[in-house]
Backbone:
């Protein structure tokens, strides 16, 4: 077994690998860029080596620097995590040249499966079901159109070296094929330095289901069941679960057998994932093989009880798997949600900044559920524009799917993040959706259920009643505290026992709160509720029992306003005396400034290109600019016809959110 390994990655996966290595008694070496100095993965590791500037191309992707870090620290092996150099055969060869072990598959498997065109050919040879398509290289947009017509629309245009949703476009007609080819090739070139493109048929009502495989160097290859990863946005997975609510035992066995056959065909070693597209009739087709650990591996670990990272290390050290396929048992259900630094109500634009508050959730005691949070941040950490916007993965395990979903919803209620925007309201909305809870999933789920984007989760009548009652209780506690501090009589307006109005945007509810010492009776327009809680002013999480049901609510106070968040929805309100509420309702409303003449940057990022100039006429839908942030290019288009009056930013400029790029007449 190794004495010391280097982790050629950052963030949550680096922290995840450190924890497994420590349990095995193995020392770890972290590497870090200038932007990551002082981050959690650096703190957790036994040693750390600086490897360059913030840009990944000058630090985490520089093979020579990583090899030198291994030599300088005496690391005997390297775990690549995912992303960066995890599937780079040249990196493996550079390590092997100096006697350092790569904790992953051999170069032959990486090279074969890393090229989506060649991997399809190998899959066909191994008798693995594949999607119909054109597997040869495509030279230009017109050839892409011709091939797309031959295959039959809709088609998927994909980068051969792609991954993570980058370099992928769906085309349903000739115009979309031309534009999709151009966009996919451009994105592939900037992300992977490889602009080769291929086209395959797009499967309607597809489900994305993958098989986790594990192989050693002694001829043993097995699978650990499947993961359902159909909830995706822009081809990027958002929510994953294991097992799949769709597969029956026969399909699971068939998919597992084909995944194992493909792994054997390339002499695979280590952990890997074979991804399939599954249609409505449970026909499945090989999509690609990821020759690394997957972001979503925790759901498999929770239902199998196996530590996949540990087995990657053991296999790399020459050990054989000590269990067979028959011994792999699936226990219960696990669901994972990816928490991203992005603003879901602004078309999921990236959000950067400092985590001013950061508090991770835990499963309630005696709940029978397990909550696991994999993260690489702590309170005070900075989310920068240089790397992937994922903050953490939250995973819940329960005896069945409903229990796992309930556990994850409760965990999101208890996950408190402030300082940047995040997507937890959207995650909660998806998991509360009737179609998701019924398991009727496809990769089109988000596009179909949120066709106009996500605009926040509306308060249900039940949630509104709950939050109105708790807002009144919170104000009751604040009022009692302020009266005690000031020495004022408790009979003043707003004191305990008063009749109040919970007033917000288009909301006015009369309530009365009685009781004390953590037990309150709230009565009003929504009837009566009994609230039991222990909460102090200033605490971000309010954990209460409301009519015997446990709830967790996030509480923020902004001047005289309260914001209470629960189940992905929120209530913004003031708790006022009846007279004050009456006067407040008469206050004039301040109109927001008119910014319709400006093209504003929807996110912090780099202005890659500008397609127009001052004095130019533009039509609705015409390309105006491309802004790059967190490794993704975002195309900005004109919302209506107009004339450009002034250009406020030049290509190459760093933009802040809402910074003007163009101004129209």
Residues:
């Amino acid at each position: 077994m190794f004495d010391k390994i280097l982790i050629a990655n950052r963030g949550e996966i680096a922290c995840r690998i450190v924890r497994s290595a420590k349990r095995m008694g193995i020392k770890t070496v972290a590497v870090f860029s200038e932007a990551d100095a002082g981050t959690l993965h650096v703190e957790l590791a036994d040693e750390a080596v600086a490897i360059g500037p913030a840009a990944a191309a000058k630090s985490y992707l520089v093979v020579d620097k990583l090899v030198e870090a291994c030599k300088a620290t005496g690391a005997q092996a390297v775990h690549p995590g995912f992303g960066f150099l995890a599937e780079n055969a040249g990196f493996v060869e550079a390590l092997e040249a100096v006697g350092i072990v790569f904790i992953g598959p051999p170069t032959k498997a990486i090279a074969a499966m890393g090229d989506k065109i060649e991997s399809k050919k190998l899959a066909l040879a191994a008798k693995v079901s594949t999607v119909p398509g054109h597997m040869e290289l495509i030279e230009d947009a017109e050839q892409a159109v011709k091939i797309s017509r031959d295959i039959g629309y809709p088609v998927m245009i994909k980068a051969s070296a792609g991954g993570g949703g980058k370099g992928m476009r769906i085309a349903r007609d000739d115009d979309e094929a031309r534009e999709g080819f151009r966009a996919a090739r451009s994105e592939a070139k900037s992300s992977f330095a490889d602009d080769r493109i291929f086209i395959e048929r797009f499967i309607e009502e597809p489900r994305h289901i993958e098989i986790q495989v594990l192989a050693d160097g002694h001829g043993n290859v097995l699978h650990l069941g499947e993961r359902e990863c159909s909830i995706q946005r822009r081809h990027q997975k958002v929510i994953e679960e294991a097992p799949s609510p769709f597969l029956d035992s026969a399909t699971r066995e068939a998919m597992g057998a084909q995944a194992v056959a493909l792994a054997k065909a390339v002499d695979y070693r280590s952990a890997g994932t074979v991804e399939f597209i599954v249609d409505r009739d449970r026909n499945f087709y090989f999509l690609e093989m990821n020759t690394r650990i997957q972001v979503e591996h925790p759901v498999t670990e929770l239902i199998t009880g196996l530590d996949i990272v540990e087995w990657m290390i053991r296999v790399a050290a020459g050990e054989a798997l000590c269990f067979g396929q028959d011994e792999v048992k699936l226990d219960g259900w696990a669901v994972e949600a990816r928490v991203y630094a992005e603003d879901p109500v602004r078309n999921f634009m990236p959000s950067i900044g400092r985590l001013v508050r950061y508090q991770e959730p835990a499963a309630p005691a005696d709940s029978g559920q397990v909550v696991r949070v994999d993260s690489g941040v702590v309170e005070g950490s900075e989310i920068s524009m240089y790397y992937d916007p994922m903050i953490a993965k939250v995973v819940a395990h329960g005896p069945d799917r409903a229990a796992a979903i309930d556990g994850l919803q409760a965990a999101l209620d208890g996950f408190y993040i402030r300082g940047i925007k995040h997507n937890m309201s959207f995650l909660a909305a998806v998991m509360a959706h009737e179609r998701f809870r019924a398991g009727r999933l496809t990769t089109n789920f988000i596009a179909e259920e949120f066709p106009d984007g996500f605009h926040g989760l509306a308060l249900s009548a039940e949630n509104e009643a709950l939050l109105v009652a708790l807002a009144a209780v919170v104000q009751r506690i604040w009022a009692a505290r302020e009266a005690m501090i000031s020495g004022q009589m408790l009979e003043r307006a707003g004191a305990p026992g008063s009749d109040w109005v919970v007033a917000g945007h288009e909301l006015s509810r009369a309530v009365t709160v009685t009781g004390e010492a953590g037990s309150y009776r709230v009565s009003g327009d929504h009837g009566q509720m009994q609230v039991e809680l222990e909460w102090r002013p200033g605490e971000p999480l309010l954990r209460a029992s409301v009519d015997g049901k446990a709830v967790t609510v996030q509480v923020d106070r902004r001047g005289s306003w309260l914001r209470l968040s629960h189940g992905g929805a929120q209530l913004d309100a003031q708790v006022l005396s009846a007279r004050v509420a009456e006067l407040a309702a008469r206050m004039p409303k301040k109109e927001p400034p008119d910014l319709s003449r400006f093209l504003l940057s929807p996110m912090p990022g780099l202005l890659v290109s500008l397609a127009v100039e001052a004095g130019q006429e533009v039509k609705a839908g015409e390309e105006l600019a491309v802004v790059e942030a967190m490794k993704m290019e975002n195309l900005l288009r004109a919302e209506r016809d107009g004339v450009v009056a002034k250009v406020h930013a030049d290509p190459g400029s760093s933009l802040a959110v809402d910074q003007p790029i163009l101004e129209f007449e």
